[in-house]
Each structure stands twice: as structure tokens, then as C-alpha cells.
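Workshop exercise sheet. Pairs work together: one partner reads the sequence aloud, the other fills in the structure field after running the prediction. Swap roles for the next sheet.
Pair: D.N. / O.F.
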Amino acid sequence: MYNILVCDDEMDIVSALEIYLTGEGYHVFTCSNGSDAVEILHKEDIQLILLDIMMPVMDGLKTIGEIRKFSNVPVIFLSAKSEDTDKILGLNLGADDYITKPFNPVELQARVRSHIRRYVQLGSVPDAGSDSQSHYVCGGIEMDDRAKTVTLDGEPVQLTKTEYEILKLFLMNTGVVMSPREIYAKVWKENITGPENTVIVHIRHLREKLEYDPSNPRYLKVVWGHGYIMEKNC
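Structure field:
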């Protein structure tokens, strides 16, 4: 049984989420502010967090900052705000995904299953098939998939699990142009509308960690109108 932490100061939403998630077989911890969420995360083995943005004591944006100091547990932001800037801000601060209130229970459950599956599998990417390769190199980037480590010019690079999976996808498909929708389907294992912002933000994070000049990338390049590519001769 996987453990999910729901943090929201609206009790009706917390109750509804608890009903949806326990019905799917999850054990649910609840709290109403970010400070309590951090405390629970220190004490319990949590596989996913559903985190509201607007809360008293410690809001979701401050909370994700605290969480990312010691944990890479998947975090899905719950936001009543639909503006792209709010969603992107949450992703920039370390969230793995976002769902806008009011949410569709079926979509919520699908997102939860997807993120927990990836978290538990620790970086597995679909379409790898029976590929036994565990070491990937592109220019100064090296990935040891058995040890789950990435280095850039010999220096370790700390990636979130989502960033790791996106990078692995590119390393396994050098020379192939992939659209944001294709990347989302392969990494998140879902086919939904509107994934572009999520993918764009994560690729920007990767560039910031892997490129000496993110505005003029050597590795993750844009093919305008089509998507992204990691060239074979990088």
C-alpha cells in the first residue's frame, strides 16, 4: 500500500481527495498547512504529495522549497489559479505536476498512479524494451542507469526523477526529434491535452543543470515547430 500526503486548508477538498484515494487502495495522511506537511514527511514513508498553493502558516511555494532540501518525492500542486504563470512557478520550484481546481477525479487518479509508478520504479522509461544498456554518453554528459547517476564533464549533477527520465529518453533517442506531447506520453505515461508547459519547464531545468550557456544549448536543442533533439554528435 502506497502512502499519499494531502495538504490543503479546504477541508471539503481534503475529504473528497481522501475518499477518491482510499477507494483506489492508498493510505492517506492529511494536514492543512505546509509546516505540518514537512513534519509528516520527515516521519512517514510518503510516495506522493498533493499540495495546495494558498495555505496559512506555510504556503505551498515555501513548502516545496523545504521539501526539495531533503526529498525528491513527487509533488503535484493543487491550485485554484488557472493562469500559466502560477503553474510554471510551481514547476520552477520543484513540483512534478499540477492540477487546477476544480479537478476531474479520473484525471487526478491517473496522474497519481503515473507519478507513484515512476517514483517507485526509480527512473524507468517506457520503450526501453529489453535494452540492457546501462551507460549512456553524449559529449560531456554521462549517465549510469544502474547507479542512477549523471555527471557533466566528470562532475555530479543532481536531477529530480522527472528530469532524469527526460534526459534518459533523449540519451536513448539521440538524433530523434520529439515533440513536447511525445515526451510527456513517454515519460509521464499519459496521453492528455495541454502537457506542453510541463515539458518545457522541465527541459529548461535540465538545460540550467547541463548547459554552460542555457540560452545557447549544446545538448538539448529546439527544432522550431517540431520539438526538441539531442544530436548524435553532441
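Discussion prompt: The domain at 135-230 is CATH 1.10.10.10 (Arc Repressor Mutant, subunit A). What would you look at next?
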